[in-house]
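Q: A reviewer asked whether we had any structural model of the full assembly, not just the individual parts. We don't, so I'm hoping you can provide one. Inputs are below.
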Amino acid sequence: MLDATMLALVVICFALAKAYAGLCDRLLARAPGEDVPP
Amino acid sequence: MTVFGWLQILLFAALVGLITRPLGGYLARVYAGEFTPLRPLLHPIEAALYRLAGVKPEVEQSWYGYALSLLIFHAVGIIALYAVLRLQSLLPLNPQEQSEVAPDLALNTAVSFVTNTSWQSYAGETTLSYLSQMAGITVQSFLSAASGMAVAIALIRGFARRRSPTIGNFWVDLTRGTLYVLLPLSVAAAFLLVADGVPQTLAPAAEVTMLDGGFQTIARGPVATQEAIKLMSGDGGGFFNANSAHPFENPTPLTNLVELVLIFAVGAALTNCFGRMVGSERQGWMLLAVMAILFGLGVGGLYSSEAGGNPALAASNAGPANTQRPGGNMEGKEVRFGIAGSALFAEASTASSDGAVNSMHDSFLPLSGGILLANMMVDEVIVGAPGSGLFGMLLFCIVAVFLAGLMVGRTPEYVGKKIGSPEVKMTILALICVPAATLGLTAVASVVEPGLAGLGNAGPHGYSEILYAYTSATATNGSAFAGLSTSSPFYNLTLALAMFVGRFLVIVPVLAVAGSLARQSIIPRSTGTLPTDRALFVCFLLGVIVIVGALTYLPALALGPIVEGLQISRGMLY
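A: Here is a predicted structure for the entire assembly that you could use as a starting point for your response.
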């Protein structure tokens, strides 16, 4: 039971990290009209 | 302080300086897939590994793909190490018949070694089987270091490439870092350590009869192979509980010097690798100069503080130091290393992300403890672990050119890349999650019952123990202040969370910065470009690191080591 809980924690943390990467990807997208470096 | 002590420090600095350029050049060639002397021997193995794993080395990844590969790889790593630790009593190579590791401790240990932290809430010789040490701990020391190096290389490619949608292939970078860099250096270092007395055996612990007729169990095992990568990887997790203070891990002053150089070798060389890859070695030397200055200040402060001795002891009946009793704070230090060897090791270990110890940091004087904390609090940019030190320093470079740009009203740029709002957002995200986790978890542990239950000391020293634990975990350092009992589910789980945040929530935005920069062209240098390869920028960058660190952490430090340092001079001890 405890093993399942620990493994669930790992899975949840990495799922959150993946969502965090997705958030970073959206933040990186420049808004229309924003300067694009040469 | 003694001349010999300073000579030790200078010899170490000179050795690191000497190997930086050749090793940096080697790293640059390895990651570019160019010829190296080891390539004829290792390339067939590399190619076989790709075939086995279904990796196409010529196919590169976007930053997002690179990050996902890294996250998946380490998620599997945590689960695999957790399984080894939980099942070790059923697995072979367990001559001491160690039982399975408790679930919360197994999770903490798995996260710790996969994140390159090596926080240890256990004593290795009484908890882990040889298989757990070798196939679990040591393997992850290699892989976590190679992963950190891969991230640094990806960020360098971001600076070096023009209009590229990709930043490399994570699996290729991981394999090359492990195969061409860490493995050969570890094998060479392990032989050196064995030659000077570090054991390497699968035989069980020795049972010996002592002179008084009693029996003693002397733990031993495959120490040398773990020791080499423990130091070089920035991992720092010892085979024995006493870590590099144990005579089987670090028997002589010579091994102490070898271990110190191993701690800094790859991290320092990566600065040169950076310079080469962006087309100006001078840029790399400037970064190393900033690291060297911060290191010099730290080791100078530590050595003078420890050599000065405990003011409370001097004020007691023991009297001040004299020629018969030279003084200095030797509590918690090995006589064979002395104060200089201990101060140098402590500085190197906390400045880098290694976390190995050859003395007990809890026994350092309060202000020395503050220096150790400060090293970790500035994201361990002073060389750091392989990869993480360099990308931490590059994040500060981005902040520095951003601030300089604000001052003069120009778009900031660094090594030919404009630093726009996306890069600054990602940099701040990476820099802010570490103090958020450190300070937030320290605050929680300082007030809740399970947190306070682990304290070994009262007052500001006890608080410093908690602050040190979370700082060490989020900075992926792994050294312990001792004094704090962290073998409880509360500490095991919260420290695991801190390590996870400190590693992966930093790496993801770093890779995002790499991806964003790689998409840009390289802009030519103009009269309005801030020169980042001059002494002025070194000073500016130093100021930024110190000010950002101080603004973030000074209140926390004031409550712990600073107030304790002021009180110890009045004879108040905790």
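A: Points you may want to mention in the reply: The interface with chain B takes residues 2-3, 5-7, 9-11, 13-14, 17-18, 20-21, 24-25, 27-28, 30, 34-35, 37-38 of chain A (CB under 8 Å). The longest helix of chain A spans residues 2-28.
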